[in-house]
Amino acid sequence: MPRGKNQKIKLLVLLRFLRRESDEQHPVTMQQLLTELERAGISAERKSVYDDLETLRDFGYDIVKVGTPVRGYFLGEREFELAELKLLVDAVQSSRFLTGRKSRALIGKMESMTSRWQAGALRRQVHVADRIKTMNESIYYNIDTIHAAISEEKCVSFVYFEWVVDFDKQEACRKQYRHGGERYCVSPWALMWDNQNYYLVAYDAKAKKIKHYRVDKMERLEVKNRPRAGQDSFAGVDLARYTQSVFGMYGGEVRYVELRFVNSLIGAVVDRFGKALTVSRDGEDHFRVTVPAAVSPQFFGWLAGFGEKAQLLSPQNTAQEYKSWLSAALDAMQ
User: Fold this and answer.
1) Are 296 and 249 in contact (CB under 8 A)?
2) Where does the WCX domain start and stop, copy by copy (predicted)?
3) Hey, which of 56, 121, 209, 244 would disulfide with 61, CB 3.0 to 4.6 Å?
4) In the chain, what's the furthest Cα-to-Cα distance?
């Protein structure tokens, strides 16, 4: 490239080098800066580089000068601190809805936001291969498409699959499309995160009801040029509270149920239903609470996990359903 054009990118070359090669433990010397400029075909003197570093400071970059143990410079404050990047890496690693491939790609992009020395520290804590991950690579883009549809108030269309056991096939556990592969068309209203999975909360105009769909089980998702429906159904819905009431996002009729717990379980109840609870005392060691819950096997399973420390008191028909569910579970163990 002509010398003049190279000079125009001088500041960018210096900034890139400081981003990639320097941090508090690894300052770069003036000679290293001059060598990098020469590698880029840029002729420079020390004085001009001093001026360039000052220009970067004036523009807001935290270029720090140090004198020990070696005289040099490093890029101090960045968009993300190392501790913040480690937190984000942990979140990506533990997200089941991201495939192993997409997790590694995202972590690679995070590494580019710090020095190569600190990127090595991020790389050492990556253990994606041992985590249970979704196998649907398109989920990453499905989420973005659904957000766009919600923003534009348009319907979405997709095919939906489930896992089935079929011992007549070479692979006993295989994917099978619901409704024979017929496309679903629903009105999206919210994306929710529950039990390590993303769910679409949508209105099904044919069934005239709110339904939930696992985003990682959607394929060939597209936005339709059709206005969404369900305004009346969602008019009075508090989506944050709705999420708390729908266990495992498998649905079920939402009912107000009265529950009784030992006092030590208040934390588990707050984690599940939030802090806005009306709690009443029931003797020295127990409390009662009435909450909205989607009555389903998932709700019963959650409650049964506390054993004798939790009881479902009312309504009576729901309490009887719970007893029948427990009896069926015991019978299955015979």
Assistant:
1) no
2) 256-330
3) 56
4) 86
Domain extent listing, the chain: 3-75, 82-130, 154-232, 245-332
Tokens (6 digits) for 129: 């291969």
> Are residues 73 and 64 in contact, defined by beta-carbon separation less than 8 angstroms?
yes
Q: Do 265 and 289 contact (CB within 8 A), yes or no?
A: no
Alpha carbon distance 188, 196 (integer Å): 20
Q: How far apart are CA 125 and CA 127, in angstroms?
A: 6
Q: How far apart are alpha carbons 25 and 117 in whole angstroms?
A: 9
User: Hey, which residues does 74 pair with through a beta bridge?
Assistant: 64
Q: Which CATH class is domain 245-332?
A: alpha beta
H helices within the chain, ranges in order?
3-8, 10-21, 30-39, 46-58, 82-94, 100-111, 116-124, 139-152, 231-234, 239-245, 266-273, 297-304, 316-332
| Second CATH level (architecture) for the domain 3-75 | Orthogonal Bundle (1.10)
Neighbouring CB atoms inside 10 A of 268's CB total 15
> What are 88's two structure tokens?
């984000």
pLDDT band at 102 (very low <50, low <70, confident <90, very high): confident
Tell me: pLDDT of 130 over 50: no
CA geometry: angle 306, 312, 318, nearest 5 deg? 130
- Give DSSP secondary structure letters for 137-152: TTHHHHHHHHHHHHHH
Distance (Å, whole) CA 82 – CA 230: 44
User: Is the pLDDT at 245 greater than 90, yes or no?
Assistant: no
Query: pTM for this one?
Result: 0.59
Task: Kindly state the tokens that stand for 79.
Answer: 């968009």
Of 104-118, 160-174, 180-194, 214-228, minimum mean pLDDT range: 160-174
What's the rounded Cα separation, in Å, for the pair 307 and 196? 24
pLDDT band at 244 (very low <50, low <70, confident <90, very high): low
